[in-house]
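Exercise: predict the fold of this chain.
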Amino acid sequence: MKIVVGSMVISIELPFGIHATEDDSAMGKTYLAKLLQAGMMAGDANYLVITYFEGITTDFVIKRLRERTYLFIMMDRLDLYLSDGIADALVDIRENTCIFVDLKNWNLTKVFCPNLVDFEFTERGIRLYEGDDI
């Protein structure tokens, strides 16, 4: 899947399932979420981005996850709002959707997202892909 937002090309080369990267700060994950949100505001409805905000609720997140089928979902800063209900909803939709999560808790990442992926950030774009060492 390729998404163009402004001059940036976001290439998502992942199968359906729940994916994460290793817990490296300042690698561009939140920037990716902001780019994708800008694309959503411009009318791209093939994907969904959810990030933490004050007052976010489990019901709000589950409703957004289940309102339609998306090709790609990014859950930014998921540690701050993850609940059992949200985890169950993500597990329910993972067979038909590529889900990329940003979790700072490495132990939670290992359990929840066994599919670790590579994240490449360049001046021209961002690429999410399965690396050779996975």
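Check your answer against the key: Residues 2-130 form a domain with the Rossmann fold fold (CATH 3.40.50).
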